[in-house]
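Bug #77: duplicate submission created two jobs. Keeping one. Sequence:
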Amino acid sequence: MSDPFAPVDGQPAPRRAPPQRRAVVPVPADAPQPPAKHPKLGAPSSIWTYRTAAGDVAGYACRFDKGGEKQFRPLVLFANAGGELEWRWEAWPAPRPLYGLDRLAQRPAAPALLCEGEKAADAAGALLPGVVAIASPNGAKSAGKADWRPLAGRTLIIWPDADAAGAEYAQEAAKLALEAGAKSVALIAPPAGAVEGFDAADVLAEGWTKAQAEALIATAKPFGAEAGASSAAPAAQGRRRRPQRDALMDLTDVCALWHDAFYEAFATLPVNGHFENWPIRSRVFRQWLSNCSYEISGFAPGGQAIEDALRVLEARANSEGPERAPWRRVGAEGGKLFVDLGDASWRAVEIGPQGWRVREGRDLPFVRAPRMRALCEPEAGCAIDELRAFANVASEDDFLVVVAWLVAALRERGPYPILVLNGEQGSGKSSFSRLLRSLVDPSSPAIQGPPKDEQNLIVTAQNGHLIVFDNLSHIDAALSDGLCRLATGSGFAVRALHTDKDENIFEGARPIAVNGIPALAERADLADRCVIARLAAIPEDARRPEDELDAEWAKARPRVLGALYDAVSSALRNLATTRLERSSRMADFEKWIAAAEPGLGWAPGSFSAAYERRRRDSESAAFESDAVAVAIEDFMTRDDARLWSGTATELLGHLSGIVSEQIRQMRIWPKTAQGLGNCIDRSIPLLRTKGIVIERRHSGVRTITISRAG
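Kept job's structure:
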């Protein structure tokens, strides 16, 4: 008998084509607002937002409680064939996104905890901050339609509901996660005595502690451990255990490796939603590697495994990574200056010709030393004059010099002036040095004694941007030469400890401040690089407790810092068009401050005038400290001589007859003709300021000619 419902032409009836719609993920900013109510179920009692790895909205899961029953509906944005956007109460096409993708992206090294629903995932996340709690959409029956690829390389723990459906879901999800590349999967068994359907939300509602929840997580057993124990044993005997080193290397896939010009290796790594830069050989990077290993696998790596991994990472950073110059507190790029705030989020201040702003520092190669401390967040719209209340300087010129040094210290490169703070006992030199440091490069300790040798000076320079030496009584020749080279920019190289050929190298410049009671810039070459500020004595009735001053400074410091950044912005804006009437030894510094004067509210040329007066004072102080220069001036003026010529031996005899026995016994007084020649070379610039010119000739006999202007 024929089918009475068959088509008359013998051909099957064509099926209706499904509507041409596609899910729109992520939801664009101009999308229509999602509906507040379901047409039949009304307003949802709970809403969970699904997000992409970048944090954008992907859709919603809604719960409805009606008639004593709970129902769930997905709410997803779709676009029809004509491109029109419409919210629909239906799920995404498979594969569907996981709930918690944004949290997975923020914490790439943390283990994932899979729960059977969004409410349970939120509860687990609140109880267990050490894991990333996630869920798959549309309940236990839809595990096969979820996209499990984001779990590739992850350690996954599954916390199913305490029922048959939950057990079945856990088995299917474990298989799918492993197929997607999960590193390992473990399953939690419901606690003893749990009622049917018991999950993480019930645990939170019952008031479990974090320790109790962690104890339950610790009972998780590897997926398939029981079923595969007997069959896996023979295979395990012939399978080589994976080295810890390789497991550690896997953890660094999220790091960007790079190196500097001296082949020191660095890693840029994600930490709590921001990025940090650390030397691969640093203690911080070792701790990060160990912590990630423990979080993911539960084991603490051995010292040899860490050492092996670090050696491989160093080689990769130098052979495969780009070369970048690491920045200490201050850096420059694209015509802008950047200052590391030193805070836990690794933010920075970006200073450009048109102003400044606080921004994330994720693309900036800032590195930090353990001694670095955080700057305060600057405030805009304030004047530098607010610093006057905390600067007990002796004159207006001294205040201008101090502010100019601060503005110069915020530049990324030298030459930098050396600030010398002079004052009698009790004038607040140490306190003022700490205050100045807090504006440029906070550190612990804020001030320190002078280094014992050049190697210690290099270490100090390598671990910070600013150097402050406190309470100096004298600067000897070796330290003077080192400070001069460090201020103007030079290279240092000393043999690295415990090596035969390796060198510890530093190349660059650093702003420097020193303080002391006596005049410290006695040598002419050091005096040329110094700016000297004198502090006034503080009367007994004007002294205040440090805690009061610290409280006031904590309020004023952000405003003063903002005023300094305004000055730096002005310098960037005006530097190309700034011209100096004359160029001193520190012309770069003087030009930088002249360009910054509009941002400080100073009249044009006010700093140059103050700087010139300070230079003349420094030259006079350096001249008076040079016993040979003073003796030569005395020798040329004693008999009103205009010209003298002779050998170094003859000149030494004349000068020794002028000076006192006490001076002749001093170490600084030359004992030989060669020693006198060396002293004269240093004294020539000082004598020139007194109108005395010295020339040295060699035409068979080495002669010295001294002439004095009328």
